[in-house]
Each structure stands twice: as C-alpha cells, then as structure tokens.
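User: Hi! Is it possible to get a structure for several chains at once, not just one? Here's what I have:
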Amino acid sequence: MSEAVAVPVPTAPRPREGDLRVVVLGKGAIGAPVREALASGHVQGAQLTAIVDRRGATRPDGEPIEGDTWLGEADLVVEAAGQPAVASLGTSVIAAGVDLLVLSIGALGDEDLHDRLSAGPGRLYLSTGAIGGLDVLRAVADAGTLQYARIETTKKPRTLIQDWMSQGQRAELLDAVSRVEVLRGSPQHIAGAFPASANVAMAVAAAAGSRSLVEAAVFADPTCTVTTHEITVESTTGTYRFQIANRPSPENPATSGLVPLSVLRAIRDLAGRKETVL
Ligand SMILES: NC(=O)c1ccc[n+]([C@@H]2O[C@H](COP(=O)([O-])OP(=O)(O)OC[C@H]3O[C@@H](n4cnc5c(N)ncnc54)[C@H](O)[C@@H]3O)[C@@H](O)[C@H]2O)c1
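Assistant: Yes, the chains can be modeled jointly so their relative placement is included. Here is the combined structure:
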C-alpha cells in the first residue's frame, strides 16, 4: 500500500492586534484580486474581515455574516461594486466612523451624495484606479496655478455600449472602423454616462479640486488593444501630459488590470507603510 501524503491545508493568517481591518465590497475584477491579496496576508498591517456582494456578506472563509454587522468590524471599506453601491452603502459606512476607499468615483457627480460622504466622521478616500499623474495635478491645484485639465479616454467600442444609447448610436459605435469621439463634456456628465468606464473623469476633477476647470471625453476605437487615458494639465508652472495604456482585466474588459494594484497600494499606505512616495 502506498503511503498517504499529507496535503497542507492553507489557513488564513490570524488577525494581528492593530491591523487595519478591511471589508471589500464587490467580488469582481477588482474585488476578487484585492480579497485574495488581503486574505493571503500579502498586505502587511491589513487584515480582511469581510467580503460583501449583492447576495450579502461573508467572512474570508465563506461563513455568512448577519445583516450589516460587518460594519462594526471594519476600519476601512473598499468599494469595488459600482456607482449604485456607493449611493446605497457609502453614507452608512461614513456615518459609522469607518473610512471608505471609493473606486466608483463617478458616483460623486451627485453633489448631495458627495456632501454626505464628506461629512464624516469616517474619511472619504478616492482611489487613483486606472490612472496616474494625479500628484502633479493636485500640487498645481493646491497652489492655485491650475489653468485647466483634460482627460481623453479611448476604449474598445463594445465596452462603451450603454442603456441610454439609441439603436442608431449603438450601431454607429459598433460599425466604426477608426477612432471616433463618442461624448465630450464635464467630468460628472462623462462619468455618469459611462458608469463602469469613465470614473477616471471624476478622479481628475477631484484631484483638480474643480469641475469647471476639467473637460473629459470618451472615444471608441475598434483597432485599440489597450485602454488609453491621455491627461493634459495646463498650469502657470508648465504643461504636463500623462499617457496611460492599460491592458484590460481578463475578468472584465471594462476594467484595467492596474486597478486592483492601485487599490492594494492605497491600502498599504493607509495601513501605515513607511517610506511612501507621496
Ligand atoms: N476608478 C477607476 O479607475 C475604476 C476603474 C475600473 C472600475 N471602477 C469601478 O469599480 C467598479 C467595480 O469594477 P469591477 O470591474 O470589479 O466590476 P465587476 O462587474 O467585475 O464586479 C462588481 C462586483 O460588485 C458586486 N456588487 C454589485 N452591486 C453591489 C452592491 N450594491 N453591493 C455589494 N456588491 C455589489 C457584484 O456582485 C460584483 O461582485 C465598477 O463598477 C466601476 O464603477 C473604477
């Protein structure tokens, strides 16, 4: 008889005193890898306490959690569940004194919701998500030298189809043979029109501390193999251009593979990693 080989059963790391207790909203292209990194102990100083999706909340080992009691075991809630989830859950997170890291930043186009989420006592953080360069934008905005900022996003046509589009608009988009402009306007208009694809427009507005100085546009390009964001910042101190070319997440073509990495970087910073580049 052959000898039985003991297979080690992986166990979740034990909570450590003083760890940042993190709850993740959403189990999709962003939430799943963030949950995995946290549950496997890859984020020093942070501990996953619950995962919440449309069906309810569970502990990292899958045990169901009653109602919204997960909120009492959180220091930080990471929202990766869509703009409607920010509206339905965000205010109670902030009101409970729990910090909220928002991915679906387009939800803040609703000024009333934005005010409620900014009222504390929990702190509102916005993820840099799929883009970068926001440190420069914030620096010139804080100094009062920002003249304008623009973000132009180019995606594959099929990822841009929306319920509000007429049959004609959809056909035009899907039949395009080269890059076409789909919509241009204020950041809140663009992020509202493309809720899963253009949250970055409101991220730029938040970094600029202004909606009126920011213009956003969305393009469809059937030939593109990556999602691109071109950010231009004009300031009295200079002109700054950032070009981001993101490979899509294999789980969700509307989301870039960079986004969960940005979230994990933010959690590491909030959990107190030393020697951070700010
Ligand atoms: N800021 C950025 O750069 C950026 C980039 C990509 C996506 N996003 C935002 O992040 C969101 C999530 O992206 P994704 O690719 O992971 O989406 P996804 O569709 O892959 O997953 C969404 C998850 O959220 C869950 N969910 C939906 N409604 C919920 C609710 N009310 N409460 C709890 N869970 C709920 C779903 O069950 C699913 O698990 C997008 O909708 C978008 O708004 C932001």
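Residues 134-254 form a domain with the Dihydrodipicolinate Reductase; domain 2 fold (CATH 3.30.360.10). The first helix runs from residue 31 to 39.

User: Great, thank you!
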